[in-house]
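Need tokens for this chain, all 295 residues.
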Amino acid sequence: MNPILDHYTNMEKFRYHSGPLHDLQRLEEAEDSNGTSSSKMQQLKQLENEIQSLSSRRHQLKWRLEMAYEKIIHKLLTGDKNENMSDLASSDVYQVSCDAVSNARNQKLQQIHNLYRLTGISIKEIKRNVVRLTFDTFSNGQFFESYYIEVKGYNELSVGNHSLPHFIPVIKIAEQHLADGLRTFAQTVMNMLRAFVCRRQFVKNLQTHLSDYLVNEISSSNSYDFCCLSLTDFPGLEIQMMSSLDKSHPSHIKVIKLHKRSRVISELEQERLSRITKSLLVAQMPEVNLLLQNN
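Here are the structure tokens for all 295 residues:
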């Protein structure tokens, strides 16, 4: 005989050393060597039933373990403390459930944070009862500078330090909207910052598009809610554009005479100026260029 083959044969033969499977294997081996008897068949049947019972018990315990996880996670998520957690599952199951809930909450907070970033707003707690709102300004897909506001308090919120431009009425906005929650307050501030950036870009684009027709550079306020320009085609006249702080483009345009004794404006000039101002109101730069080129 081959000793190596005998070794693996013995390993295969005695792989079960205790329990129902060992007894089952022993009876099967006895059956192979001595033939079949009714008593041995009964023992074999009994062992098979015992194995099925253990298998059923295993599935039941597994189901109870899964239910324990589900119950604890539900309690942790809903904050229900009426039922003792130790009555539901072991400490190991409880700890695993706590870790799972903690990870899920962190992922949810990260998702909320990412959604805020998509709207240009992010929020971060910097210390107890103090959060920092960060506003990333952008226009036409281009990002510009960021601003922040610190909001403090728990039940009653108030504005702390901030880096907003001086013309943004943050205190007034807080008085009007902060009591309704951070969402409305932050969105109102974001709308004003975005409108400011859009007005600024509008004036810069206007300066670029009309550079060949401007007497001087366009003059504007710090908030770009008021700006004025003079065109070479209309000497002695000034176009003034005005807007509210929450608007991205001019909401009102008028043409004034720089001097009281300025020349009389012809009907043709009035028609051209009317068409130019209408184009400026809807920020149609190419239309303004075309009107000036067709002089």
